[in-house]
Amino acid sequence: MTPERFLLELVAIPSVSKMANGPVIDYAEKHLLGFSLKRHVYRDTAGVEKVNLVAQTKPGIAELALICHTDTVPCGDAALHPSIRGGKLYGRGSCDIKGFLACILAAIEDLPALKKPLAIVLTSDEEVGCVGAKFLAETKAFRARRAIIGEPTCLRPVLAGKGYALSEIVVKGKEAHSAYPGQGHSAIFDAARIVTTLERVSKTLATKKNRAFNPPFTTLNVGLIHGGTAKNIIPGECRITVEWRPVPGQPADWAAQLIREALAKLPRIDAEFHVIRLDPPFEPSASNSLAAMVEQLAGTRADAVPFGTEAAHLSRLVDEVIVFGAGDMTVAHTEHEFVPVKELRACAQHLRTIIERLCG
């Protein structure tokens, strides 16, 4: 089957992170003929069963591992009815990242016997914190000499990526009738002062550059603010959600340190700062032979990306790792997500060639 035919069928399988990903794993297993299959199962915080799959042609350290997550961000029903229009395949997950799984399945179809082990690794809950990848890394579920982790990179091999951190600031005030502000204390007014301080922190982060990235510094964003209970009540609480994306070469918690120091300097503000997630950056591997091979095949140049990937966690199981795939991350997670069919076919062919060179 062509990769676009695989992808049309994969997109039609709902696999939002809050759902069980078993149906996608079931689909993949039907096409992993000749592979030894091992499921690594856990339950998420809501009690939903999640499956990670490690499939290998032979036991031992894999010469090459192709790694792909199976979950998607939320979507409407229309996004689960994929279509091809103007040379592009539309649908949720077409770009991020079922397109890469479709390319894997197309690349291994009718594959001749391999001399060295090939691994296919499918993970869960990447979109909500790389939970499946962390689970596999902690349990040392596999080992590989080289690995390609699927993400939409416009067919560029990616050598490094930013990390991802998530935090919340809980600002405490005192509720009162809004006609008598002196009897209360506004948590939202205090939160506004904190947000201004966070903007200054972001400017400090921008002073230290890593020119491999665009933008070339650790970015900080205040994405959500929730506060108050009614229009005529002095708000007693306000919550601020803050994220940052640390570049390699800097401590992942540098932004957290700056935030704590900034909050400590604000007088008469009662605020608690909680770091919820702190994923490290993806550092370049010691060897770049795999990246060089992909550069030659795809006719592209190696790059770094400003988003987080599973590479930051799975690199401890692999000697050399790159991130690679068809499609553009700028259209992922959007209402009109798509992947060019031409890129899908090229990606599948590149994967087939890499498998034959390294494992054949």
Task: Give a brief rundown of this model.
The chain is α/β, with parallel strands linked by helices and 360 residues long. The protein folds into two domains: 3-161 and 282-359, 3-Layer(aba) Sandwich (Aminopeptidase), CATH 3.40.630.10; 164-279, Alpha-Beta Plaits, CATH 3.30.70.360.
Output the keywords.
360 residues, Alpha-Beta Plaits, Aminopeptidase, 2 domains, 28% strand, 9 helices, single chain, six-stranded mixed β-sheet, 17 strands, four-stranded antiparallel β-sheet, alpha/beta
Walk me through what this model shows.
The chain is α/β, with parallel strands linked by helices and 360 residues long. The chain has two domains: 3-161 and 282-359, Zn peptidases (Aminopeptidase, 3-Layer(aba) Sandwich); 164-279, Alpha-Beta Plaits (2-Layer Sandwich), CATH 3.30.70.360. It contains nine helices and 17 strands. A six-stranded mixed sheet has the order 1-2-6-3-7-16, sandwiched between helices. Strands 11-13-9-14 form a four-stranded antiparallel sheet, covered by helices on one side. Helix 3 (98-108) crosses helix 9. The protein is elongated. The protein starts with a helix and ends with a helix. The model has no long low-confidence stretch (mean pLDDT 96).
When the domains are counted, the total is 2
Mean pLDDT: 96
Strand content: 25-35%
Order of helices and strands: HHEEEEEHEHEEEEHEEEHEHEHEEH
The helix-and-strand class reads alpha/beta
Fourth-level CATH superfamily of the largest domain: Zn peptidases
Uncertain stretches of 5 or more adjacent residues:
none
What is the level-2 CATH architecture name of the largest domain?
3-Layer(aba) Sandwich
List the strand order in the largest sheet.
Answer: 1-2-6-3-7-16
Backbone shape = elongated
Radius of gyration: 23 Å
Question: What does the largest sheet look like?
Answer: 6 strands, mixed
Number of helical elements: 9
Number of strands: 17
Helix content: 25-40%
Kindly report the CATH topology of the largest domain: Aminopeptidase
| CATH class assignment of the largest domain | Alpha Beta
The CA-CA distance between the termini, in Å, is 21 Å
